[in-house]
Design goal:
The protein has 443 residues and is mainly α. The protein has 16 helices and twelve strands. The longest helix has 35 residues. The chain is globular and about 70 Å long. Belongs to the cytochrome P450 family.
């Protein structure tokens, strides 16, 4: 079926199980499989580097379906290397270490609202399980809304913007403030000086904004939800991480970016293990060979993991499948942060790919780790938590998929592959370890 038609991949993608089917196919047929008439998926660390760190390979034409207009390109769908490099150059100064440090105060403000909300729930509903997927979604969107637009969404406290479109209002608000207002992602270039009623411009920036907001919020929400799921089911890891956080920091206010947070090696390992087991981008990031103007260069074949790739072939590595390849991650379905700290961890790190690699790799990686570390550290400093309602039975999978065994691992945080990962839970019960109250309590 896959040899004859793209329907094979489309069918499993529509059922949000393509990452699971890809892993199963690799287990059955080997490290390279055919997933469409011109699509090859690899499952080795060498292929990962051959593809994503190759100057002669770019994003596939499949990304063009996200174009607003034929000649309109964003950071996500620009195939041309020159256009993409220009956009990354504009973005670079805003997501570098200095800008991240400058934004940290705002990040703390949103995280403290999150802490206060949990403290209030501990007081008012001490035995009620909390859906962490929902809570983390509101938190991470609040952070990215301010980082991208400087706009106070306040989703954690106000339901106004939770269920309707707000992008247009955010765009118009930022335009009205002008290019000299608070530095954020919206003004990536000083040429963006247009009136707030310019429909064409607003529609053009909407697609870019959607990508930036999603990239910075959905991925963080997935990782945080997955990590708390695994901590709630792995007591040894939970206790070890809690001990590290509470021994490193004397107060919640002392949890800030810098040396002490960076020295929390087990925290970093737990974050990486959650990203490995339940990657926010679980699927295959398709690539293809660039059409070279120099025919002599074009004549030289592209080789991936020892295989000569015909021109026009879509190639890629499925992140979920590679992250569960027993060659690099023994006992791959066990939450084991120590695998990133033990002797011989280099093999695992070479196959670890939650942010992609090369010229198309995530530019906000450092900000992501800072945000994740701050949230986890502050929550564990303030609270103890236990599992609430069991997630088993909440997946909503049909009997067919259950019989196939693709969702049978109840100790794996289930993600639904729709480019980014959709998810639910975990449902956790929190207890304040210091007897704090939610209204006005100091964090």
């Amino acid at each position: 079926m896959a040899k004859l038609s793209d329907f094979y991949g489309a069918f499993h993608a529509a059922n949000t199980t393509l990452h699971l089917k890809t892993l199963q196919d690799h287990q059955n047929f080997g490290s390279v499989i055919r997933q469409g008439p011109n699509k090859l998926v690899f499952n080795t660390s060498s292929a990962l580097h051959d593809i994503y760190q190759n100057e002669r390979i770019t994003k596939s034409r499949a990304y063009l379906v996200t174009q607003r207009a034929p000649d309109s390109y964003g950071l996500f769908n620009s195939l041309d290397k020159t256009i993409h490099q220009r956009k990354r150059k504009l973005l670079g100064p805003i997501v570098n270490d200095r800008s991240t440090q400058a934004f940290e105060t705002s990040m703390h403000r949103h995280i403290d609202v999150f802490i206060q909300d949990l403290l209030s729930l501990c007081q008012k509903k001490p035995t009620t399980p909390v859906n962490m997927s929902e809570k983390f979604t509101y938190l991470t969107i609040d952070i990215m809304g301010e980082f991208v637009f400087g706009y106070p969404l306040n989703l954690q406290k106000n339901e106004t913007y939770r269920y309707r479109s707000i992008l247009r209002k955010m765009i118009q608000s930022r335009l009205a403030a002008g290019p000299n207002a608070k530095h954020n992602l919206f003004f990536m270039t000083d040429t963006l000086r247009v009136s707030d009623d310019d429909e064409m411009f607003i529609e053009e920036i909407r697609s870019e904004a959607t990508f930036l907001l999603s990239a910075g919020s959905d991925t963080m929400s997935t990782c945080l939800s997955a990590l708390f799921f695994y901590l709630s089911r792995n007591a040894d890891c939970y206790q070890k991480l809690t001990a590290e956080i509470r021994s490193k920091f004397s107060s919640s206010d002392s949890i800030i970016g810098g040396r002490h947070l960076s020295d929390c090696n087990y925290l970093k390992a737990c974050i990486d293990e959650a990203l490995r087991m339940s990657p926010p981008i679980a699927g295959t990031l398709w690539r293809e060979q660039i059409t070279e103007r120099n025919r002599e260069v074009e004549a030289a074949p592209v080789v991936v993991d020892g295989h000569i790739i015909p021109h026009g072939t879509y190639i890629g590595v499925n992140t979920y499948a590679l992250h569960h390849n027993e060659t690099y991650f023994p006992d791959a379905f066990t939450f084991k942060p120590e695998r990133f700290l033990e002797k011989g961890a280099e093999q695992a790190k070479k196959a670890f790919n939650p942010f992609s690699l090369g010229a198309r790799g995530c530019m906000g990686r450092q900000m992501a780790y800072l945000e994740l570390s701050l949230v986890v550290a502050k929550v564990l400093w303030h609270f103890d938590f236990t599992r609430g309602l069991d997630e088993t039975g909440r997946l909503g999978e049909s009997t067919y998929w259950k019989l196939r065994g693709w969702r049978e691992r109840i100790d794996e945080y289930q993600i639904y592959d729709i480019f980014g990962a959709k998810h639910q839970g975990p449902w956790l019960i929190f207890k304040s370890r210091r007897g704090e109250e939610g209204d006005g309590a100091s964090t």
